[in-house]
Design a protein that fits this description.
The chain is mostly helical. The protein is built from seven helices and three strands; from the N terminus they run αβββαααααα. It has two domains: 46 residues, no CATH class; 134 residues, no CATH class. A three-stranded antiparallel sheet has the order 1-2-3.
Length: 201
Amino acid sequence: MIHKLLIAVFIVFLINTVKAQDTIQLHKDGAAYVLYGVIIDGDTLLLSSIDEVYIFPLRKFNSARDLRRYRRLIRNVKKAYPYAKLAKAKLDEIEANFVKLKTDKARKNYIKQVEKEIKYEYEDELKKLTITQGRILIKLIDRETGETSYELVKELRGSFSAFFWQALARLFGSNLKSEFDAHGEDKLINEIVILIENGQL
């Protein structure tokens, strides 16, 4: 009996709560906006959510050279970051399609096809990246995918390809095995990415 009574009280409370929610129309510059509110003791209170904002300590520079270096880092991250996001999207797409493919031959053919598409679409743009932007991109790929570029190449193309591309990267002073360290050496890059993602930079 008490159990049924509690359920009934809960349902009545739920109905009153649902009825108490209301919409408010705001007219501004000829456009109507619908806002949500809740009525409490006869007062209508606006229910709204705001985007998260990240605040980092004000950066102080010891010299004009340090300021230029920081601005250059921002420019380089802005250039490399879209490609890291693209790598993540492509990897997700590949993983989703891999499940559907039944044989190793079909998977190899699929990887070759994806590689051709990426080369055709992005090779010219990627060639324009500077060595520094390339190094940042390698780090950002690890940040976005959770795997180093070396691990991704090894996974998708095999150990020999991974070894070959790693050797080539080392010739240019890069390392496909570079991991993203958000709390250490890559802290500044991580802050810049967060500000870019949040539309603050």
